[in-house]
Amino acid sequence: xxxxxxxxxxxxxxxxxxxxxxxxxxxxxxxxxxxxxxxxxxxxxxxxxxxxxxxxxx
Length: 58
Ligand SMILES: [Zn+2]
Fold this sequence. Notes:
Blueprint: E1 18-20, E2 27-30, E3 36-38
Antiparallel strand pairs: 1-2, 2-3
Zinc ion (ZN) binds next to loops.
Protein name: Ferredoxin-like protein involved in electron transfer
């Protein structure tokens, strides 16, 4: 699996015209609204993955 998280849509204007920024790892630029933003993986949630299994024991 890739270490990179690639956004599909700009979080500010919703456009898809995104390209990696040279500002650094996880930095992206939106050509539509001219914004630069960063994605950062913060870690896993303490509650763990969601289990969709019913109450059929552990
Ligand atoms: Zn945008």
